[in-house]
Description:
The chain is an alpha/beta fold. The protein folds into two domains: 2-45 and 292-396, Alpha-Beta Complex (Aspartate Aminotransferase, domain 1); 62-287, Type I PLP-dependent aspartate aminotransferase-like (Major domain) (Aspartate Aminotransferase, domain 2), CATH 3.40.640.10. It has 13 helices and 14 strands. The strands form four sheets. Strands 2-8-7-6-5-3-4 form a seven-stranded mixed β-sheet, with helices on both faces. The chain has a three-stranded antiparallel β-sheet with strand order 9-14-13. Helix 3 (48-60) crosses helix 10, helix 4 (73-87) packs parallel to helix 10 (275-286) and helix 5 (101-113) packs across helix 9. It is globular and about 60 Å long. It binds 4'-deoxy-4'-aminopyridoxal-5'-phosphate and glutamic acid. Glutamic acid binds at residues 15, 17-18, 39-41, 127-129, 177.
Amino acid sequence: xxxxxxxxxxxxxxxxxxxxAAKSRHLKNKGYDVINLSIGEPxxxxxxxxxxxAKKAIDENMFHHxxxxxxxxxxxxxxxxxxxxxxxxxxKPSQIVVSTGAKQSIINVLLSLLNKNDDVIIPSPxxxxxxxxxxxxxxxxxxxxxxxxxNFKIDPKxxxxxxxxxxxxxxxxxxxxxxxxxxxxxxxxxxxNVLKKYPKVMILSDEIYEYISYSINSVTSIASxxxxxxxxxxxxxLSKSFAxxxxxxxxxxxxxWVAKSCDKIQGQMTSCTNSIAQRAAIAALESSxxxxxxxxxxxxxxxxxxxxxxxxxxxxxxxxxxxAFYIFPKISSFFGKNLHGKVIKNSDQLSELILDNxxxxxxxxxxxxxDEYLRISYASSESKIIEAFTRxxxxxx
Length: 397
Ligand code: PMP
Ligand code: GLU
């Protein structure tokens, strides 16, 4: 039966982050004491004022029907204000498209820009779904590898070397999932100096972890550099910062011609995103980022706790993540070693062995383009983190 599937479907793999989360859920349902450090999902509930806005929208009895494809006008206006307030980017509502999660925003953009065999530059380590979505569009991922010693950041020379006449798009993620790296203004401006020389190369700037940064007060958006404004699609969403993964709200600010195409594609695919979630999103985006500071402070405390506990585990090499809620230790020192009766050959095996023996779920680095690493999410409570790292220490040391 499998070969009756399209090449497109056969060509891509399941999302490893989602698969690991499903595996943890399955073990948990069977009664095992699983601690899920695989999926990047805040354990908080969304703030009360957002929940109240959703309840109010239901009670108003006016928001049950299809919305405009690209989102309610007052939501798009709130998004424009947010972009101006937080990112110093000027967008008009006609440049905004609201979608069913940032994932749909990404595929809308890729389907709008890519033809078969176009090249798309993706710095590695990268978030799992970028590569698979590019493959789904029958385009070619061109990977730029980064190193732990360089905080997993690309430099302008590497970037320029990878651009050719076939390059259509670069996907840039700041703060980065899985490494937690955050580019500062200076570093970004050196990349912008390269990108502005190639006005046909578009830039998808995924800023979904924007508010979750620890050493920089505010993350710089590429579109705020006027030289490349016309090349950039700025992507954001409510999943991470507002702990609203299940509400499925993502959005882009983009040149009007890109936004129009995303609107057209979305109109054929999903019509619009959930109306009540859109009303709640207005409350979220109109509020001051100070109202979610308590979650960011908590992530910072957890990050520091994780760093302390990681120091006690032999064989992990890691750097200090400045943003998002992941740590990405190098684990290749375990390769070739016998761990409780099994010789470790790759990150998949290590992640699996850890899950089977300690009931701690992680995601292997191979999912993110580098097999020498393991991704550990710390979007869990402090007590769970302490328990998880205590188990890891006993198992690995
Ligand atoms: N971009 C990155 C970097 C992510 O980690 C995720 C994971 N959720 C997404 C996009 C997709 O987010 P959403 O839940 O809004 O689809
Ligand atoms: N983005 C999160 C992660 O990387 C959620 C799962 C997914 O969408 O990949 O774990």
